[in-house]
Amino acid sequence: MQREYLESGEQLRFVFEQNQDDFVVDEVGIQLKGRGNFLVLHIKKVELTTWDMIAVFAEFLGTPAPNIGYAGLKDKHATTTQYISVSKKYETQLKKFKHKQIKILDKTYHDESLSMGDLEGNRFKINLLEVDQISAGKIEKRARKIVKNGLPNYFGYQRFGMQGDTLEQARQMIAGELHISDKKLKNFLISVYQSHHFNEWLKARVQLSKKQKSDRFVLLKGDVYRDQKGKLFTPKTTLKQDFADHKVTPTGLLCGRNVFRARDAAREIEEKFDDQFLQEKGQRRDAIVFVKDLTLEYNNKFDILNISFTLPKGSYATVFLEAIAGMNFKAKG
């Protein structure tokens, strides 16, 4: 399952490692009121998944894990900061909290528990290793081109497990060949199945754009757009200028029931990657996202290029790195 990008040209080789020193992620854009019955903790964690971190707090507080709110899931192999919420009644107890991989940076209050999606995005700071000075210049040039033209919003390789084994599980379950009783795992596998179909659709649209020799994502009649307020709609004509001005975003299908589907020429491609028999609820996902606040700093003594940028929630930093490199990465064992 290959991901294809809009940029053409030579492959740019560099090394990056998802570890606590070279891969840093910070949640951004969470709106908190500063008052209310929920205590919101700003957490720094190292080499722990979000689930692992929540389990630590649940055990310390003596409360079920579902009582702890969170806005996003963060990788294990990184240093990450994120927000969690608990009942205000635990404030005194938390003053005694200590853990070698978790640090409470700050606290405030909110009138409701945090839930998935409450953040606007994530800020990444990543060290690219083994980069010589010439390569650093080429990487910066391509990165800034992607910032201008937009990044195909693929689900990253992390979504599909080692060697695609998670996707194979999902296919077997949906085909009725594998029974999954755990509801949480079942929902995850369905989302993997939907993600795969989205990625294959997006690849087809990127290939079409490149066939038309466009540096930008080519829009089609019947595309479903999302406006700045989150409303989905299909206009009578393509909205090239509004897309260029970041006023609207074309979207792709996460197949399922009760979902807005494309029409006309856009639907001809979309239906090839649609499972209309899937009973779970479908959604639309932005096809293109725009990288913001890009900065690059080169250390020629150690051949390290630090690249920092912000992506909307649900987008993958590794997808941006793949687009820069002009090649696909894969999960390491």
Task: List key phrases describing it.
Pseudouridine synthase, eight-stranded mixed beta sheet, alpha+beta, globular, 333 residues
CATH homolog superfamily of the domain at 151-289: TruD, insertion domain
CATH class membership of the domain at 151-289 = Alpha Beta
CATH architecture of the domain at 151-289: 2-Layer Sandwich
CATH topology of the domain at 151-289: Pseudouridine synthase
User: What is the tally of helical segments?
Assistant: 8
Structural class: alpha+beta
How many beta strands in the DSSP annotation? 14
Measured distance between first and last alpha carbons: 18 Å
Instruction: Determine the fraction of residues in helical runs and give it as a percent range.
Output: 25-40%
Question: Mean pLDDT, as a whole number?
Answer: 94
Task: Indicate the low-confidence ranges by residue numbers.
Answer: none
Strand content: 15-25%
Largest sheet: 8 strands, mixed
Write down the overall geometry.
Answer: globular
Instruction: Give, in order, the helices and strands.
Output: EEHEEHEEHEHHEEHEHEEEEH
The quaternary structure here is: single chain
Write down the Rg.
Answer: 21 Å
Short overview:
This protein has 333 residues and is α+β, with helices and mostly antiparallel strands. The chain has eight helices and 14 strands.
